[in-house]
User: Fold these one by one.
Assistant:
Number 1:
Amino acid sequence: MNSLKNQKGLPSLIMFVVIFALFVLSAVAAVYFYSEAQTLSSAQKTTTTLTKIEQAPGAVISIANYSSLGFSPQLVYALTNRSVVTIGGSVVVNTGYGAVVEQVLGSGFVVNYTTHDYVVTNYHVVEGISNLTVTFADGNAYAAKVIGSDPYSDLAVVSVLNTPSTQLIPLNITYSSSLHIGEPVLAIGNPYGLTGSMTFGVVSQLGETIQDVTAGNYSIPDVIQFSAPINPGNSGGPLLDGNGAVVGITTSDVSNSQGLGFAIPSDTILRELPSLITTGSYNLHPLLGIQGFNMNYQLAQASGTNFTYGVLVASVLPGSPAANAGIEGGNTTVTINGQPYVIGGDIIVSINGTQIINTNALSAYLEENTMPGQTITVGVIRAGAPLNVTVIVGVRPPPTIG
């Protein structure tokens, strides 16, 4: 009898299980389709917002709202490309056949300083330029003039004449000292006249030093090296981080740099911009007054020292701060791997307690941490023994401006 009752209740149990399973499946399906709908809605909102940005000429653009979206080269370009301009004009070049007029092509970008907008570019782009013009991404062009320049840092500031305020969309400049090797960066410029071209890469090295003809015999320190090619016409354009902020100003005036880009750091721009705008120049570059070599194992062996880092002082400029402080240059010439070196001088290994590894580090420390007239303590190795030398930092002579 009990067996019969159990058999009669079995269909009810099966029906309950089936209904419960269908309920669970329905709930899972509802959650899935809701999630998909939210994702689609979010994507549509992002696309719509980007479209509005691209279609809003003259609008002030805020990048902070997009930090949660993650890094996107397309988005950074959309947010910043209207702030990048083409620099045009002409220069007279003396050749073996007489003077000829050549066209100038370069890049620049809009910045704001004390409520006024300016264009920043490389000095070598506008050196000796006539009939200077600035052309914006929408094709509108205006006459312009150089109001400040510094050949030592390859920087120049341009004022665009009779420009409506809606045309000038300034970029944010952040501190390049916060950059890290491997960080993604973008460069926007006008290589070979190809307006608004973007290249993309990563920071491949920091603290480099480059030689530029505009800087005379001085080096430009703390340069950013990145893995994107920079070509003629890119010079003066912005190097941007993942948030669209300027971290440097690109320069193509470096020979044999195929496949690599170099940029003057934004820390230099921020340091010099007020003086360039208000006085037309920057005359606070520090001067030590030495010439030297990077120490290495072979030089250490030849010099009879265990110090394989630092700057070996080959010569001291007469009357310079280094000479006045008693820093000593070399007195013996040796040849290592076919290269002549002057040894026997002091080896600079620190400034104010900060280790100096090579000439790049020496130039960068002086430029970023000292001012003319400041007293610093230079740690040297002399005749194998450590010695601290007190030096009053000098100032470079005014550059020759073409």
Number 2:
Amino acid sequence: MLARVSPEVLRLAALFEEVLQALAEVPLAELVAGRALPEPSAALVEHLRAHRATLAGWLRSPGCAEALCVRLARWLWSRNQYVRLDRAALTAACDRAASELADELAGEPDAKDMSERLVRTGQELQARVAALVRAGGGKTDVVCSEYAVTLQRDALGLGDAPLTAPVLDVGCGRSAGFVRALRAEGVAATGLDREAPEDVALVGDWLTFPFGQDRWGTIVSHQAFSLHFVHQHLAQGPEAFAYARVYMAMLRSLKPGGRLVYVPGLPFVESMLPAKTYRCTKVPLPEAMLTEAVHALERAAGFELAYAAHVERLVRGSVITCSGGDPRRASPPADRGVGPADALAQGAAGGRRTGPGAADRGVGVHERVRPTLRPLRAALGQAAPGRAEHRGGAAPGRGAGDGRGR
């Protein structure tokens, strides 16, 4: 969109990027709490004053609000990968801020007046965005990373083995490095991510994406879908139910013999999969990734996490429903009075715990465990000897947990 606008607007966008870069040094919690924004730069003030008419017209256009919303959303996701953003509300907040700034450009404000007006508009936008971030549960920094393709293969327990096509990489990240590597090998592959590159992937939200049925030979997800699932499970919130349903939708979308491959593991769900329909194989993480921090996390959570899960669909006829009102051919698990998807959703939301100490931890366990997801991410990002480090490898892969599209 910005490629078709005037040089004055492009310069304004570049100056806005400088503001975001400066704010990247400030903890997200402080920004959400209302920490004062830095004074606008002289370059920004003078640019607005010098091109008032052109910039006012752009600021009042729908394209401006949408572009600002997209950029702010990406910036917020880079600060906290779990934050849920109401895109309509964020667009409305951006539209209001842009319109207010356009109004401020009326007349001929001097540099001092223009600076004060920018500060006022920025503070009002900050307050509105902070409210959305608080509502979306993203008040602190939880960053994403990009990983080398070889490291992703190691963590997923794939080695150099070929993958059955077509392959879908859920949470492929902004670079979609894993997808590009597969395509370079002649494998039909695509990615899914809220910040996906459209030349090799689909831009979308994994909670609403139509995975289809009997469609994929392999679905992979490295520190993306399952990491968010663990986060929601430990939080014991309602979104864990949505993740359980999407998990089953991904399994239904596999071709017979197809595999869903992900890391970290999801033992609280895998233990409830019907053995006649799915076979789950746990592949331990490479020794170099098994740090004490990871073991401490597992002890705190009460279940195993540090492994890659390979879930294979065995039977074409047995399909699990993931919502009520849509009966399928599969039978409920033995000794259960509820359907498989309902049982999975109940377990995912915290209704069923596994592992030592699960019975006596109480409902507040997620408050102690959630912050310790960071060591697991860090450990999974450590390269084995001879492998490229994340954010520095020759073949960058996806960012962990980048798949949500808001």
